[in-house]
Structures are given as structure tokens and as C-alpha cells.
Amino acid sequence: MTIRLWEKQYHWSNCLEKMKLNLGIYAVISLMSSSVLLATPALAQRSEPCNNDNQEQPSPRRREIINREYGLRFEIPANYRTELRRETEHRQQLSIIVRNPTDVNFMECGKRERMRGYGHQVSDVMVSIEPRPSNISNVRDILRNAAESSGIASEIIESNFTTIAGQDAVVYTGKTSYPERYRYAQLIHPNGQYIIKIFAGDYGNVIEPVDLAVMDIIISSLKIDG
Hints:
By secondary structure, this protein is of the alpha+beta class. It is 35% helix and 32% strand. It contains four helices and ten strands, in the order αββββαβαββββαβ. The chain has helices at residues 2-44, 101-113, 139-149, 209-221; strands at residues 62-67, 72-77, 81-86, 94-99, 125-131, 154-164, 167-176, 180-188, 194-203, 223-224. The strands form two sheets. It has a seven-stranded antiparallel beta sheet, with helices on both faces. A hairpin with a 4-residue loop joins strand 1 and strand 2. The longest helix is centred in the N-terminal third of the chain and has 43 residues, at 2-44. The N and C termini lie far apart (119 Å).
């Protein structure tokens, strides 16, 4: 009888210890879960170190950009920055990047913070010049070539012929399935050797209004020394 009583007491004691252990583990897990739940909103609300959401408006003051190599002159807003790029391997293209000051600061921040892909998050206006292909002799050829090379994923949705810097030109707007929206103004250099392109574009279905405004400033002020 004494042995059986002791066995029962040992059994209940062992059960209680297991219950305490299980309750303790459950409490720890519950506490950890609560900590995760409490921490999640804080992580979600943490802002990115760099952003370029609010584009600075173009300054009413202007400054002139001069490229003596190809005899190009045009105006940009005084608060915008420029960057010269030269491609020598394929198209022999020279490009002048015209960048909003907000994007200038964003690029500097992205480089400093080692952000991935920050260079693809800016929408620049670009003036480029490249050799004229042999199959292009006028602006109608330029538009035809652009339509043929756009492919299935891209299409030209609007175009018109005009005059820029005293030269025949074509201005057209296109879109891709990414989606991406872009606008080009193209003309043949007076010496007949090059094509001049003025570009604005961005990911999504809308081009930044400030980019279009800057593009129009460049188009209206462009001068070419033949």
C-alpha cells in the first residue's frame, strides 16, 4: 500500500513537472511571437534612406550648354545638372544627360548607402548625337525606322512632323509593355552626318511633367552651328 501511494505521488509529481515545463515553453513562444508582432509595424514603417519622390521644379533662370564638337547649343534650367557620356564601341554616341537636382541628390545618397539599382530609379532628359545610318535620309525615314525597331513589346502611339533649330524634325511618343513611356524628338544634323535625339522617359504610364517641360525648353532653344 505504501509503495502504491508513493508510485501515485511520483506519477502526479512527474506530470506536474511536465505541465510546468510545457507551460514555460508555451509562455516563451508566446512572448517571442508577441515581440515579433510588435516589431513588425516598426520595420514596415522604416523609411528608405534615399528617395526622389518629390522632383524639384525647374528654375525660371536658364543657363546655356555648349558642345563645340558638334556645334550644339541649348538652354536648361539653372538648377539642373549635366553629365557627358560617350559610347565608342557600338553607335559612337555622345550623350548629354540633363538631371533634376532631386535626382542628383538621390544618386549621391544611393551611392553612399550602397543601394542596389538606384541608377535605374531616376528619369533623365537626354540630348544625344550619333552617326546617321545609311538607310535614313529624312525625318520620315527616322519615324519609319523607329516604328520598325520598336518590336512587339513597344509601339509608337503619337507622332508629328515639325521644325527644330531650322531643321525638319519628328516628335513621337511611345510605350512598352514593361510598362514604360517615352518621348523622342529627332532631326538630322545640318552637315548630314549625324542624327540628333532629344529624349525623356520613365517607367510607368506617365512621363514626369517636369521632364517634359525641360525637354520643351531644350527643343525651343536648340541651335546648331552647321
